[in-house]
Design goal:
Blueprint: E1 12-16, E2 19-22, H1 23-31, H2 36-55, H3 62-83, H4 92-105, E3 110-119, H5 126-143, H6 151-162, E4 169-176, H7 183-191, E5 202-204, E6 207-217, H8 224-250, H9 259-264
Antiparallel strand pairs: 1-2, 3-4, 3-6, 5-6
Helix pairs in contact: 1-2, 4-8, 5-6
Amino acid sequence: MVATRASADDAIVATVNGQPVWGSCVAIQAKRGAAVHDALQQCVDFELLAQTADHRGYALDAEVARATHGAMVNELVTTYEDGYQDPAQFGAFWLKAYKQGVWHIRHENYRASSYVRVEVPATATPDEAAAKKLIADRIAAALANETGLSGPSLLVLAQAAAGPGVKLAHEDVTAFRAGGLEENYAKTLFALTEIGRASQVVRTKWGWDVIAWTDDVPATDPSEAEVIAKLLPNVKIAFFAHWVDAIGKSLGVHVTLDEANIAKLEAL
Protein backbone atom coordinates (compact mmCIF):
# COMPACT_ATOMS: atom_id res chain seq x y z
CA MET A 1 0.00 0.00 0.00
CA VAL A 2 2.34 2.67 -1.32
CA ALA A 3 1.03 6.21 -1.74
CA THR A 4 1.03 7.23 -5.40
CA ARG A 5 1.67 10.59 -7.01
CA ALA A 6 -1.34 12.73 -7.90
CA SER A 7 0.07 13.86 -11.24
CA ALA A 8 3.19 13.68 -13.40
CA ASP A 9 4.70 16.76 -11.74
CA ASP A 10 3.94 15.65 -8.17
CA ALA A 11 7.16 15.73 -6.12
CA ILE A 12 8.39 13.60 -3.22
CA VAL A 13 8.87 15.98 -0.28
CA ALA A 14 9.84 13.37 2.33
CA THR A 15 10.17 9.64 2.84
CA VAL A 16 9.17 7.39 5.73
CA ASN A 17 11.17 4.16 5.80
CA GLY A 18 11.83 4.72 2.11
CA GLN A 19 8.16 5.23 1.20
CA PRO A 20 7.24 8.54 -0.47
CA VAL A 21 5.32 11.46 0.96
CA TRP A 22 4.01 13.50 -1.95
CA GLY A 23 3.71 17.24 -2.28
CA SER A 24 0.08 16.82 -3.32
CA CYS A 25 -0.76 15.57 0.17
CA VAL A 26 0.84 18.65 1.71
CA ALA A 27 -1.07 20.91 -0.71
CA ILE A 28 -4.37 19.30 0.27
CA GLN A 29 -3.72 19.74 3.99
CA ALA A 30 -2.60 23.34 3.45
CA LYS A 31 -5.86 24.08 1.61
CA ARG A 32 -7.68 22.79 4.66
CA GLY A 33 -6.04 25.50 6.77
CA ALA A 34 -2.75 24.05 7.99
CA ALA A 35 0.52 25.96 7.70
CA VAL A 36 2.91 24.39 5.21
CA HIS A 37 5.24 22.97 7.89
CA ASP A 38 2.29 21.58 9.83
CA ALA A 39 0.78 20.18 6.64
CA LEU A 40 4.05 18.40 5.87
CA GLN A 41 4.18 16.91 9.37
CA GLN A 42 0.58 15.71 9.02
CA CYS A 43 1.39 13.92 5.76
CA VAL A 44 4.46 12.31 7.30
CA ASP A 45 2.27 11.15 10.18
CA PHE A 46 -0.31 9.79 7.70
CA GLU A 47 2.38 7.67 6.04
CA LEU A 48 3.69 6.44 9.37
CA LEU A 49 0.20 5.46 10.49
CA ALA A 50 -0.51 3.76 7.18
CA GLN A 51 2.66 1.68 7.39
CA THR A 52 1.90 0.73 10.99
CA ALA A 53 -1.65 -0.31 10.07
CA ASP A 54 -0.30 -2.34 7.17
CA HIS A 55 2.20 -4.13 9.43
CA ARG A 56 -0.58 -4.98 11.86
CA GLY A 57 -2.61 -6.60 9.09
CA TYR A 58 -5.30 -3.95 8.81
CA ALA A 59 -4.97 -3.98 5.04
CA LEU A 60 -6.83 -7.29 5.15
CA ASP A 61 -9.47 -6.07 7.59
CA ALA A 62 -13.03 -6.36 6.25
CA GLU A 63 -13.87 -2.75 7.06
CA VAL A 64 -10.72 -1.51 5.32
CA ALA A 65 -11.58 -3.66 2.31
CA ARG A 66 -15.06 -2.14 2.17
CA ALA A 67 -13.69 1.38 2.52
CA THR A 68 -11.11 0.71 -0.20
CA HIS A 69 -13.80 -0.75 -2.43
CA GLY A 70 -15.97 2.31 -1.89
CA ALA A 71 -13.08 4.70 -2.50
CA MET A 72 -12.26 3.00 -5.80
CA VAL A 73 -15.88 3.27 -6.91
CA ASN A 74 -15.98 6.94 -5.93
CA GLU A 75 -12.78 7.60 -7.86
CA LEU A 76 -14.19 5.96 -10.97
CA VAL A 77 -17.45 7.89 -10.66
CA THR A 78 -15.44 11.10 -10.32
CA THR A 79 -13.60 10.17 -13.50
CA TYR A 80 -16.94 9.82 -15.24
CA GLU A 81 -18.28 13.10 -13.82
CA ASP A 82 -15.18 15.04 -14.84
CA GLY A 83 -14.74 13.32 -18.19
CA TYR A 84 -18.23 13.58 -19.68
CA GLN A 85 -18.77 17.28 -20.36
CA ASP A 86 -19.27 17.42 -24.13
CA PRO A 87 -22.68 16.46 -25.60
CA ALA A 88 -20.87 14.71 -28.47
CA GLN A 89 -19.52 12.15 -25.97
CA PHE A 90 -23.05 10.83 -25.41
CA GLY A 91 -23.69 10.17 -29.11
CA ALA A 92 -27.23 9.13 -30.03
CA PHE A 93 -28.20 9.18 -26.35
CA TRP A 94 -27.71 12.95 -26.27
CA LEU A 95 -29.67 13.51 -29.47
CA LYS A 96 -32.65 11.63 -28.08
CA ALA A 97 -32.45 13.35 -24.68
CA TYR A 98 -32.13 16.75 -26.35
CA LYS A 99 -35.18 16.18 -28.53
CA GLN A 100 -37.23 15.06 -25.52
CA GLY A 101 -35.99 17.75 -23.16
CA VAL A 102 -35.46 20.93 -25.13
CA TRP A 103 -39.15 21.81 -25.23
CA HIS A 104 -39.16 22.01 -21.42
CA ILE A 105 -36.50 24.70 -21.60
CA ARG A 106 -37.13 26.58 -24.85
CA HIS A 107 -40.82 26.96 -25.56
CA GLU A 108 -43.69 29.28 -26.37
CA ASN A 109 -46.27 30.40 -23.84
CA TYR A 110 -48.03 27.52 -22.03
CA ARG A 111 -51.27 27.86 -20.12
CA ALA A 112 -52.87 25.57 -17.58
CA SER A 113 -56.63 25.48 -17.39
CA SER A 114 -59.69 23.88 -15.93
CA TYR A 115 -63.01 23.36 -17.63
CA VAL A 116 -66.57 22.34 -17.02
CA ARG A 117 -68.36 20.84 -19.97
CA VAL A 118 -71.94 20.08 -20.85
CA GLU A 119 -71.29 17.12 -23.10
CA VAL A 120 -73.07 16.90 -26.44
CA PRO A 121 -73.16 13.39 -27.92
CA ALA A 122 -72.38 13.02 -31.61
CA THR A 123 -75.93 11.72 -32.07
CA ALA A 124 -77.58 14.79 -30.48
CA THR A 125 -80.16 16.66 -32.54
CA PRO A 126 -79.83 20.46 -33.05
CA ASP A 127 -82.59 21.00 -30.47
CA GLU A 128 -80.79 18.78 -27.93
CA ALA A 129 -77.53 20.62 -28.52
CA ALA A 130 -79.28 23.97 -28.10
CA ALA A 131 -80.87 22.82 -24.83
CA LYS A 132 -77.47 21.85 -23.48
CA LYS A 133 -76.05 25.22 -24.50
CA LEU A 134 -78.64 26.93 -22.31
CA ILE A 135 -77.16 25.10 -19.32
CA ALA A 136 -73.64 26.17 -20.32
CA ASP A 137 -74.86 29.76 -20.74
CA ARG A 138 -76.19 29.74 -17.15
CA ILE A 139 -72.81 28.54 -15.94
CA ALA A 140 -70.89 31.18 -17.90
CA ALA A 141 -73.18 33.93 -16.61
CA ALA A 142 -72.71 32.78 -13.01
CA LEU A 143 -68.91 32.78 -13.41
CA ALA A 144 -68.59 36.00 -15.41
CA ASN A 145 -67.59 38.18 -12.44
CA GLU A 146 -65.69 35.55 -10.49
CA THR A 147 -61.92 36.00 -9.95
CA GLY A 148 -59.25 33.67 -8.61
CA LEU A 149 -60.96 30.57 -9.96
CA SER A 150 -59.26 27.22 -9.52
CA GLY A 151 -60.33 23.78 -10.65
CA PRO A 152 -62.31 22.89 -7.49
CA SER A 153 -63.98 26.29 -7.15
CA LEU A 154 -64.90 26.30 -10.84
CA LEU A 155 -66.67 22.98 -10.49
CA VAL A 156 -68.54 23.93 -7.31
CA LEU A 157 -69.86 27.20 -8.77
CA ALA A 158 -70.64 25.64 -12.15
CA GLN A 159 -72.58 22.77 -10.60
CA ALA A 160 -74.64 25.18 -8.54
CA ALA A 161 -75.47 27.21 -11.66
CA ALA A 162 -76.26 24.12 -13.72
CA GLY A 163 -78.76 22.89 -11.20
CA PRO A 164 -79.42 19.54 -9.54
CA GLY A 165 -79.28 16.44 -11.68
CA VAL A 166 -77.08 18.00 -14.37
CA LYS A 167 -73.93 15.99 -14.92
CA LEU A 168 -70.92 18.09 -15.87
CA ALA A 169 -67.63 16.85 -17.23
CA HIS A 170 -64.65 18.47 -15.52
CA GLU A 171 -60.86 18.28 -15.70
CA ASP A 172 -57.82 20.23 -14.60
CA VAL A 173 -55.62 20.49 -17.70
CA THR A 174 -51.88 20.78 -17.24
CA ALA A 175 -50.00 23.57 -19.00
CA PHE A 176 -50.07 23.26 -22.80
CA ARG A 177 -49.07 25.43 -25.72
CA ALA A 178 -51.93 26.52 -27.95
CA GLY A 179 -51.01 23.96 -30.61
CA GLY A 180 -51.35 21.12 -28.12
CA LEU A 181 -55.03 21.76 -27.41
CA GLU A 182 -58.27 21.40 -29.35
CA GLU A 183 -58.51 24.40 -31.68
CA ASN A 184 -61.57 26.14 -30.23
CA TYR A 185 -60.51 25.35 -26.67
CA ALA A 186 -57.07 26.87 -27.33
CA LYS A 187 -58.44 30.05 -28.96
CA THR A 188 -60.74 30.64 -26.02
CA LEU A 189 -58.17 29.89 -23.34
CA PHE A 190 -55.47 32.08 -24.87
CA ALA A 191 -57.93 34.93 -25.37
CA LEU A 192 -58.47 35.23 -21.60
CA THR A 193 -56.62 38.20 -20.11
CA GLU A 194 -56.49 37.32 -16.41
CA ILE A 195 -55.53 34.17 -14.52
CA GLY A 196 -58.46 32.95 -12.45
CA ARG A 197 -61.12 34.18 -14.87
CA ALA A 198 -63.60 32.03 -16.80
CA SER A 199 -64.51 32.25 -20.46
CA GLN A 200 -67.80 32.51 -22.25
CA VAL A 201 -69.27 29.32 -23.66
CA VAL A 202 -67.26 27.72 -26.46
CA ARG A 203 -68.21 24.75 -28.63
CA THR A 204 -65.53 22.09 -28.67
CA LYS A 205 -65.81 18.72 -30.33
CA TRP A 206 -67.00 17.22 -27.05
CA GLY A 207 -69.66 19.72 -26.03
CA TRP A 208 -70.19 23.21 -24.60
CA ASP A 209 -67.21 24.29 -22.49
CA VAL A 210 -66.59 27.03 -19.96
CA ILE A 211 -62.85 27.36 -19.39
CA ALA A 212 -60.87 28.95 -16.56
CA TRP A 213 -57.24 30.00 -16.98
CA THR A 214 -55.48 28.67 -13.86
CA ASP A 215 -51.73 29.08 -14.42
CA ASP A 216 -49.19 30.50 -16.84
CA VAL A 217 -45.78 29.35 -18.06
CA PRO A 218 -44.20 32.28 -19.95
CA ALA A 219 -42.43 31.71 -23.23
CA THR A 220 -38.67 31.30 -22.97
CA ASP A 221 -35.91 31.37 -25.57
CA PRO A 222 -32.53 30.63 -23.93
CA SER A 223 -29.32 30.34 -25.92
CA GLU A 224 -28.08 26.95 -27.09
CA ALA A 225 -25.35 27.07 -24.45
CA GLU A 226 -27.98 27.63 -21.74
CA VAL A 227 -30.08 24.73 -23.04
CA ILE A 228 -27.06 22.41 -22.96
CA ALA A 229 -26.10 23.56 -19.46
CA LYS A 230 -29.59 22.72 -18.17
CA LEU A 231 -29.84 19.37 -19.93
CA LEU A 232 -26.33 18.09 -19.26
CA PRO A 233 -26.65 17.20 -15.53
CA ASN A 234 -29.72 15.01 -16.07
CA VAL A 235 -28.26 13.44 -19.22
CA LYS A 236 -25.11 12.52 -17.29
CA ILE A 237 -27.21 10.85 -14.60
CA ALA A 238 -29.29 8.94 -17.14
CA PHE A 239 -26.29 7.92 -19.24
CA PHE A 240 -24.34 6.56 -16.26
CA ALA A 241 -26.15 3.21 -16.35
CA HIS A 242 -25.25 2.82 -20.04
CA TRP A 243 -21.64 3.71 -19.25
CA VAL A 244 -21.47 1.07 -16.53
CA ASP A 245 -23.08 -1.52 -18.82
CA ALA A 246 -20.46 -0.78 -21.48
CA ILE A 247 -17.70 -1.40 -18.93
CA GLY A 248 -19.29 -4.73 -18.00
CA LYS A 249 -19.57 -5.80 -21.64
CA SER A 250 -15.98 -4.81 -22.39
CA LEU A 251 -14.79 -6.96 -19.48
CA GLY A 252 -17.06 -9.87 -20.35
CA VAL A 253 -18.79 -9.59 -16.98
CA HIS A 254 -21.80 -11.82 -16.34
CA VAL A 255 -24.11 -10.79 -13.50
CA THR A 256 -26.21 -13.45 -11.76
CA LEU A 257 -28.95 -12.44 -9.33
CA ASP A 258 -29.90 -14.68 -6.42
CA GLU A 259 -33.64 -14.11 -6.27
CA ALA A 260 -34.04 -16.10 -3.04
CA ASN A 261 -31.56 -13.95 -1.13
CA ILE A 262 -32.84 -10.77 -2.74
CA ALA A 263 -36.28 -11.61 -1.36
CA LYS A 264 -34.76 -11.73 2.14
CA LEU A 265 -33.77 -8.08 1.80
CA GLU A 266 -37.41 -7.14 2.23
CA ALA A 267 -37.17 -8.22 5.86
CA LEU A 268 -34.21 -5.97 6.64
